[in-house]
Amino acid sequence: MTGKAPQHMDVEGVNEGVGLTAFLVAAARAIETHRDDSLAEDVYAEHFVRAAPACADWPVRIEQVPDGDGNPLWGRLARYFGLRTRVLDDFLLRSVRTGPRQVVLLGAGLDTRAFRLDWPSGCAVFEIDRAGVLAFKQRVLTDLAAAPKAERVPVPADLRADWAGALTAVGFDPTAPSVWLAEGLLFYLPGPAESLLVDTVDRLTADGSALAFEAKLEEDLLAYRDSAIYTATREQVGIDFLLLFDKGIRPDSAGDLTARGWSTSMHTPFDFTRRYGRGPLPEPNDALEGNRWVFARKPAP
Ligand SMILES: C[S@@+](CC[C@H](N)C(=O)[O-])C[C@H]1O[C@@H](n2cnc3c(N)ncnc32)[C@H](O)[C@@H]1O
C-alpha cells in the first residue's frame, strides 16, 4: 500500500479521476469477498486492481491493511461498498424475477454482475460506461476467460450526453420492461445531466420496470472535508472525492420519478447494516450521512 499518494484529477483517464473510483470500489469488493462474513463475492475484483498500474499495490484483503477494520477507507468505506453491492445484487435479482429480461447498468465501471449473478434465462445485461473503462475491463475478463451468465452487452457512451441511441442500437427494447441501476454514479454528473438521465430512463422504460440509484443529500458536501473517510481516501490513495463530486445544486430525482407515476422508497445504508447485521453505522462528521439508496418502480398496468 502507498503512503501519501499524488492527487489524481484528470476525470477522463481510466487510471485517474472518476475512472479510478471504479478501481476503489473493485478493491473494496475484493476485500469484502475475502471476509469470513462476506456480504458479496466478486472473484474478478482483485484482478482488476492488480492489472492497473495506478492501484496494483492497493490491498485486496483486510489482512493487508495495517490498521485493518479501523482504517476508514479499507475498513469502514470498503464495508459500505460491500453492503451496497449485496443490497443492489438483491434488488436486481428480485426485479428480474418479476419478469423483465433487460438489465442496464449505468456507469457500470468494473461491475461483474453479468458474470457473478444467477440470471434467469434470456436476460441481457447492458453495461454503459466510458470506452476506456469498458476496454480495460474487457482485457482483464478476456485474460481470465471469464464467461458471463447472461448475454452481456458493453455500451461505450458518455452519460452526460444523449446515450439513448447507443443503447437501442445494440438491441435494448424500450417497449419491454427493464431493470436499471445507477450505483455510485449520479453525484459525479452535473445536476442537469442527472435530470436528463432520469428523463431518458423514464422514456426508455415500459410499465413493470424498476430502477435503483444512489444519491447524496448533503446540502454542503465540503462540510465533510475533514471526515475520516474523505481524509483517508485523499491521503492513502490520492483520490479526493470532493474534487470529483459535482458540487452544483442536485435535482430531486426521487421526487421527479414520483411525479412521473413511479413508486419510490428511500433508505439510508444504515437501514441495511441493521438488516444484515454488518456494515457501517453512523458516526460524527460522517461522509456517509447524506447517502441514500433509492428504489423505484414503474407500476405494471
Ligand atoms: C464509482 S464508479 C462506480 C462503478 C460501478 N457502478 C460500481 O459501483 O462498481 C463510477 C463509474 O461511473 C463512470 N462514469 C462517470 N461519469 C461518467 C460519464 N459521464 N459517462 C459514462 N460513465 C461515467 C466512471 O467511468 C466509473 O466507472
UniProtKB/TrEMBL annotation:
Keyword line: Methyltransferase, S-adenosyl-L-methionine, Transferase
Q: Superkingdom of this entry's organism?
A: Bacteria
Q: Name one Pfam family in it.
A: LCM
Residues that span the membrane, as ranges: none
SUPFAM superfamilies noted in UniProt: S-adenosyl-L-methionine-dependent methyltransferases
Q: Which InterPro entries match?
A: Ppm1/Ppm2/Tcmp, SAM-dependent_MTases_sf, SAM_mthyl_Trfase_ML2640-like
Kind of enzyme, top EC level? transferase
List its EC numbers: 2.1.1.-
Annotated function = Exhibits S-adenosyl-L-methionine-dependent methyltransferase activity.
Q: Which NCBIfam families match?
A: mthyl_TIGR00027
What is the protein's given name? S-adenosyl-L-methionine-dependent methyltransferase
